[in-house]
Design brief:
heterotrimer; A alpha+beta (363); B mainly alpha (291); C mainly alpha (296); A: 363 residues; alpha+beta; Rossmann fold; C: 296 residues
Chain lengths: 363, 291, 296
């Protein structure tokens, strides 16, 4: 089931006479059938509102939502055929796991009505899918966070939804479980082939799990692409900074006579007209080279096993430190350290609009 | 510099002071416990003394050598105690049941449903909490009389089936149920009523049980309204019954039989209290904190 | 949106209906009654509008007596019960052994029928033809002279009434204060102890200020409750409180409404409104004082 969002806008009327809040602004996107989409952005960027609009818990101020060819914009949530998983799991504390999973089925009416046996069978099937069969008689409070999240997923899947929506499903789990559950969600999604929207503020999570990533900021979609492309070709400085750990290094730079300067260091020749630019360099974009053009003062070296993180500073850097990741074989000593840059990992942005600039390196 | 022996002296004094204080505390608490318990003991004791034995004691005896159940028999036969008792049970259970339905619906509307004028209505409810019962009881008496409901159960029950305070208490509790549960239920197509019935009420059952018990206590002990609205013995509740027993009672001043009646009407609540004392005390203190 | 609104009101309807009939309407109605002069409940007619009912009530010796009784009761029992409750709560909080047992026992009067247990108090204090009653025998054994607390002198009757009232209201106060005391963060006590503060100093400088809001709450509700005293008096002295000279304001209201001297809803309304005005005034004064002393 493909999901189409057409010029979706949600405006909350102001409280206390402040300005109205535009939570989602003119969002247009088509989610292909059977794909897993990661909605990524800092908190308050409108990703959860988007999810609520898709689920029908909120109605858009303008714009349309289609599931396949059906216009579901004004359909109440129960008629949309969606499954929803919450950050807090939202399991009913007084019901057992089995009762929780069966609960959505009890609401079927008319010809869809199921007998107790059918319900139980379907619930068992869902429980099997998320591998929680041994715990069916437990209450949610008697289970770990990871197990509770599986129950929540089973509950969302049991009625075979057309679209599965996951709202920060991993945020309440500890690091190890998060990794494990992430894989689990990916597996379940592949197995069932249900179109899935996954909301998160964790870029790593979004990158690792999604077929496509939607990056949002302040209600506006910044970029929609597959994870690698969002990382390699961010459309603007915000997207570039939001993705990647350690984050991208940002410098003030300038192009003069097709030469890119970072501070006073002439780092590479580019095919751009003279202008001020912002230079973003991924930590892995630095190559240690004693003749390299970029000269930084060394602050420290952090050994991380496989890699070495070189912490230094540069007068044109917007942050106090410049972080570069190099292979652990290199030895770094002295007060200064010189780098060559990988063109592919060096991204230029317009200094005024902060939009990425298209350029190629001149030899 | 304080020497070692001085330390010992301080320590000793401290210990002595502490033990005096502790002893005094226990003496005080025990004293009050005796004052609280004594009337209960006395009613039990008197109720099993025979009429002649009781009246023969110029100095009341603290024990009785020949306990008798005669007074209980008298209490149930000479006055319609059983009738008072069953009336009170009917009154208490129906009032509590109807009130629960009314306040659960109202609390749910305030806590969960969104509708125009909700906050204003709630504000009005809260301000009504200040109105003392004494002020409205006069008109209610006239209303019930005009409706011809004197000496009926409906007349007894109707004015006390709402409690703004309990609506408030329950609303607060309902609001603590996470929003996500409601959203999850909505997505699954659960109706509001089913959500209330299957999710809210079970989750908030501790509060509902507390309210139920408090209301039962209130109903069982209610005196003023039943007194106004009933003047036929067939509809007397225990409080009015006991007052009648006291005033015209057994044809003579039969204190042991009177005490037997007192024991009988006190027992249900005391049993309820002994079973649920934790819950009741917790509920009362919470109600008090929020009142 | 419209449908949603309708649903909300439907859920609210039962509560609203009952409140409208038994609370909001009576509120206006009582005002009307209180100014209708010469209202006749049989013919439901009145002579006119005015303040005569208030004047009548305020000149009625029974009302003056009730007013006096109620004020004495309030002035004695509110400070006394709050003080004893505080003492007991502090005691309860300082022990661990038997604490729960004591707590449960102390709460027992809360769940008993006031009328029923009042009878026990009556026989304990009453002088009869057969016996002087347990309390009088106790007094005699200490060398005092016996008094009839139920049918005797005014001060004796007032004493029993106050005693019984304290007995009845104490459970609630002890419970509230015990939980207030228990909720004071023990770190404060530890810190004060390290600083060498004496027990008394800790109590007055730390404990009391910390539980002050609860104390004020108890005092305010205590005042309101004591002004509405009625069934305790009935339990001890019987339904004809005017004859016993022990009526209370609420008792006066009910007597005006119903019973042998009843049938005067107008006088009852006027008396009830006077009571409401008194309670409101006292509550406002209380609130003002509590604002002043808690806002430092």
């Amino acid at each position: 089931m493909k999901v189409v969002l057409q010029n979706l806008t949600k405006i909350y009327p102001s409280r206390d006479k402040g300005p109205d809040v535009t939570a989602v602004n003119d969002f247009t996107f088509e989610i292909p059938d059977g794909k897993l989409i990661g909605l990524l952005g800092p908190s308050g960027c409108g990703k959860s509102t988007t999810l609520n609009l898709i689920s029908g818990l909120e109605t858009p101020t303008s714009g349309k939502i289609f599931f396949g060819d059906d216009d579901v914009t004004n359909l109440p949530p129960e008629n949309r055929g969606i499954g929803l998983v919450f950050q807090s799991y939202a399991l009913y504390p007084h019901m057992t796991v089995l009762q929780n999973i069966m609960f959505p089925l009890e609401n079927f009416k008319g010809k869809d009505r199921l007998s107790k046996e059918e319900m139980k069978e379907k619930a068992m099937e869902a429980a099997r899918l998320v591998q929680i069969e041994p715990y069916l008689e437990r209450k949610p409070a008697q289970m770990s966070g990871g197990q509770q999240q599986r129950v929540a997923i089973a509950r969302a899947l049991v009625k075979r939804p057309r679209v599965l929506l996951l709202d920060e499903p991993l945020s309440n789990l500890d690091a190890r479980l998060r990794l494990q559950t992430r894989e689990e969600i990916r597996r379940i999604q592949r197995e069932t082939g249900i179109t899935t929207v996954f909301v998160t503020h964790d870029q790593e999570e979004a990158m690792s799990i999604s077929d496509q990533i939607v990056v949002m900021k302040a209600g506006v979609v910044q970029q929609i692409d597959n994870p690698q492309d969002v990382y390699d070709h961010p459309v603007n400085l915000f997207v570039a900074s939001f993705l990647g750990t350690p984050p991208i290094n940002v410098f003030d730079g300038e192009v003069r006579d097709h030469m890119l300067y970072i501070g006073e260091d002439a780092v590479m020749k580019v095919d751009l007209e003279d202008r001020k630019v912002i230079v973003g360099i991924r930590p892995e974009g630095f190559i240690l080279d004693e003749n390299g053009p970029l000269c930084c003062s060394l602050t420290g070296v952090q050994v991380m096993g496989r890699d070495t993180s070189v912490v230094s500073s540069h007068p044109a850097s917007r942050n106090p430190t410049v972080c570069s990741i190099i292979s652990a074989e290199n030895k770094v000593t002295g007060d200064t350290v010189r780098f060559r840059l990988k063109p592919f990992k060096t991204i230029l942005f317009a200094d005024d609009t902060e939009q990425a600039l298209d350029y190629s390196v001149l030899e | 510099m304080t020497t070692n022996s001085e330390y010992l002296k301080i320590e000793k004094k401290q210990k002595r002071n502490d033990s005096i204080r502790t002893t005094l505390t226990y003496v005080l608490l025990t004293l009050w416990a005796l004052i609280v318990l004594f009337p209960f003991y006395w009613m039990l004791l008197t109720s099993i003394k025979s009429y002649s034995a009781y009246n023969g004691e110029y100095i009341p005896q603290f024990f009785t050598a020949s306990p008798t159940m005669e007074n209980y028999k008298e209490a149930f036969t000479a006055v319609p105690l059983a009738r008072y008792f069953s009336n009170t049970i009917i009154f208490t259970l129906s009032t509590t049941a109807i009130m629960l339905a009314v306040i659960v619906l109202a609390a749910f509307a305030f806590a969960r449903l969104k509708f125009a004028g909700r906050d204003m209505t709630f504000g009005m409810f809260l301000s009504l909490m200040m109105i003392p019962n004494e002020l409205v009881i006069i008109t209610n008496f006239v209303t019930i009389t005009n409706w011809g409901m004197r000496n009926t159960f409906w007349g007894l029950i109707l004015p006390s089936v709402t409690s703004i305070f309990y609506i408030y208490l329950l609303k607060e509790n309902f609001e603590q149920v996470p929003d996500e549960l409601y959203k999850a239920a909505k997505v699954d197509g659960t109706s509001d009523f089913k959500y209330l019935w299957k999710v809210m009420i079970p989750i908030c059952s501790p509060t509902i049980v507390t309210i139920t018990i408090l209301k039962i206590i209130e109903c069982w002990n209610s005196y003023v309204w039943p007194r106004l609205i009933t003047d036929k013995q067939e509809y007397f509740l225990v409080s009015n019954g006991i007052q009648t027993i006291r005033e015209s009672g057994f044809g003579r001043e039969n204190i042991p039989a009177m005490m037997a009646a007192v024991v009988v009407i006190s027992i249900p609540l005391i049993v309820l209290f002994l079973i649920f004392h934790k819950k009741i005390m917790e509920g009362v203190s919470r109600g008090g904190t929020k009142g | 949106m419209e449908k949603q609104s309708l649903k909300g009101w439907i859920y609210l309807l039962p509560a609203l209906a009952f409140l409208a009939v038994f609370m909001i309407y009576p509120l206006f109605d009582v005002l009307v009654y209180s100014v209708e002069e010469g209202y006749n409940s049989a013919s439901q007619t009145s002579f006119g509008i005015g303040l005569y009912n208030y004047a009548y009530v305020l000149h009625d010796p029974y009302f003056i007596q009730a007013l006096k009784n109620t004020f004495i009761l309030v002035i004695i029992t509110v400070p006394l019960s709050t003080g004893i409750a505080l003492l007991i709560a502090v005691g309860l909080n300082s022990i661990t052994k038997l604490k729960e047992l004591f707590q449960t026992i102390f709460f027992l009067p809360y769940v008993t029928n006031t009328l029923a247990v009042g009878l026990v108090f009556m026989i304990l204090f009453k002088k009869t033809a057969y016996s002087d009653g347990l309390v009088n025998l106790l007094i005699q054994s200490f060398g005092g002279t016996s008094v009839d607390f139920i049918d005797g002198p005014y001060w004796a009757k007032m004493f029993v009434l106050c005693f019984y009232t304290v007995w009845v209201v104490l459970p609630f106060k002890i419970l509230i204060l015990t939980s207030a005391l228990a909720s004071v963060n023990p770190d404060y006590y530890k810190a004060a102890k390290v600083d060498g503060a004496t027990k008394w100093r800790i109590f007055t400088r730390i404990t009391l200020p910390m539980i002050a809001p609860m104390l004020f709450y108890l005092i305010i509700t205590g005042f309101i409750g004591a002004f509405k005293a009625y069934s305790d008096a009935v339990a001890l002295f019987g339904t004809d409180l005017n004859a016993a000279g022990m009526n209370t304001i609420v008792g006066y209201v009910y007597d005006m409404l119903y019973g042998t001297g009843g049938g005067y809803p107008s006088y009852a309304s006027a008396a009830a409104l006077i009571l409401f005005a008194i309670v409101l005034t006292i509550t406002c004064i209380n609130l003002l004082i509590s604002r002043k002393s808690t806002a430092v």
